[in-house]
Amino acid sequence: MYIVEATHDAAQQIALLPKEALVGLSDLTVPLSFHPWSGESFNRRSADPRLRALEFGDEPQGVVVYLILEDQRRVVVLRVLWPA
After folding, report:
1. Which among 73, 79, 68 has a CA at the least distance from the CA of 11?
2. pLDDT for the residue numbered 2
3. Count of structural domains, the chain
4. What count of other Cβ atoms lies within 10 Å of the Cβ of residue 42?
5. 81 CB neighbour count, 10 Å cutoff
6. Helices (H) and strands (E) in the chain — how many of each?
7. CATH number where 46 lies
8. Domain boundaries, position 75
9. Which residues pair with 54 in a beta bridge?
10. How many CB atoms lie within 10 A of CB 68?
11. Which residues contact 55 (CB under 8 A, 6 or more apart)?
């Protein structure tokens, strides 16, 4: 199991999300804590596969960008994107 945490910037982005986005985002917490590698590589041209992204929301509308720190069993949410 991985610990899921957010950077200060990501926490600020989360605080600004509408209610429907928060529901979708909260649904990602369990999958991220057990299967963080299931997300898509954020930049396929990058040599660092630890940077991942997962979509969330009904359609889905949002994207969570995160970094997997395997040796620490941590997932760090770096950015939360939601259309305005």
Report:
1. 79
2. 98
3. 1
4. 19
5. 13
6. 3, 5
7. 3.30.2310.20
8. 3-81
9. 64
10. 20
11. 62, 63, 64
